Amino acid sequence: MITLRGGPCYTPTEPQPANMPTYTLQKIADHIDGRIKGDPDTLIIGISPVEGAQSGFLTFAENERYLDKALESEATAVITPMVNISSNKCLIQVNNVRAGLAKALTLLHPEEASLPGIHATSVVDPTATVATSACIGPHCIVEKGARIGEHVTLMGHVTMGAFGVIEEDSKVFPNVTIYPKTKIGKRVRIHAGAVIGSDGYGYVLDHGFHRKIPQVGDVIIGDDVEIGANTTLDCGALGSTRIGKGTKIDNLVQIGHNVEIGEHAIIIAQTGVAGSSKIGNYTILAGQSGIAGHLSIGEKAVVAAQSGVMHSIPPGEQWMGSPASPSKQAKRQLIAIQQLPDLLRKIKRFFKAN
């Protein structure tokens, strides 16, 4: 039986250590699979961008453009690519600088752990199951039959609908609404204000009246998915809306009913995907792109920003424009449009001369 407590899941009133935690260069290099140049016992207290980097901090340089700035900065050490560098500054060299940075950040700037328990202001239905290691923050609602797994965190004002499931190590940020029957996998992160499982936009014109089609499906979210702030995922009209494992969805995205998004896709801000479309594995939908309903976007396809997709896209292709077309074709059209003013002037001069 999980315990009730009056305090929040985090402990901001607890005294903080006088100094930030420090790690040796060797410890960081081992954590990010890097190779050291310099003193492995050098101490690092944090990570900083090149601009304003100070002594004691680690910075990074993905390419030659930033490398000189990083080497000239006051940073104690630099994460760099595996290239030949002549410098007295300490280096950690890795095959992928951005991946190395991500790993280093988890070590040097870890998220504060949540304390298990249910806040006294939260309401948990007696039929719900909450793991003893889970954290239910202030003013949360966990409805009947819901199941909250081990080490799950629900921050303040989260609603978990009836018979929904959140599996272990997932984190739900404040003011998220999760509708009934939603199934959320392991290590999922859902950011503030997201709405998961709201009704799909389904109506039928009946005798001059837009009759609502009841939306009785659900949402299934795979492991390691991240969903951005104020994003909305509609439930299936019948069946499920599905988000494949490892997919990352940015802020302010709308996913319609019965959409199926594959594994490790990237869906960027203000994108909209209309109902029943299928998005393949490793596909990228850039910002403000729109996908019409009942389309198929193939595996590893790329849709450029602000594109309006009205036709299915084969795997691996890059499309852009509105209406979207293959990138090479769309670029030729853009160039032709840019040449129209000169062409019109030439036509006017031709008719004047004749």
Write a brief structural summary.
This protein has 354 residues and is α/β, with parallel strands linked by helices.
Describe it for me?
This protein is of the alpha/beta class. It folds into 2 domains: 23-108, MurE/MurF, N-terminal domain (Udp-n-acetylmuramoylalanyl-d-glutamate--2,6- Diaminopimelate Ligase, Chain: A, domain 1); 117-327, Hexapeptide repeat proteins (UDP N-Acetylglucosamine Acyltransferase, domain 1), CATH 2.160.10.10. The protein contains 4 helices and 41 strands. The strands form 6 sheets. A 13-stranded mixed β-sheet has the order 1-9-12-15-18-21-26-29-32-35-38-40-41, with helices on one face. It has a 10-stranded parallel β-sheet with strand order 10-13-16-19-22-27-30-33-36-39, with no helix packed on it. Helix 1 (25-32) packs across helix 3. The model is unreliable at 1-18 (pLDDT under 50).
Q: What name does CATH use for the topology of the largest domain?
A: UDP N-Acetylglucosamine Acyltransferase, domain 1
Fraction in helix: 10-25%
Strand content: 25-35%
Total beta-strand segments = 41
The rounded distance between the terminal residues' Cα atoms is: 93 Å
The residue-averaged pLDDT reads: 93
Give the uncertain stretches in residue-range form.
1-18
How is the largest sheet built, in terms of strand order?
Answer: 1-9-12-15-18-21-26-29-32-35-38-40-41
* Distinct helical segment count: 4
How would a crystallographer describe the biggest sheet? 13 strands, mixed
Shape: flat
Total individual domains:
2
CATH superfamily of the largest domain: Hexapeptide repeat proteins
Please tell me how large the radius of gyration is.
26 Å
Q: Architecture of the largest domain in CATH?
A: 3 Solenoid
Structural class: alpha/beta
- What is the CATH class of the largest domain? Mainly Beta
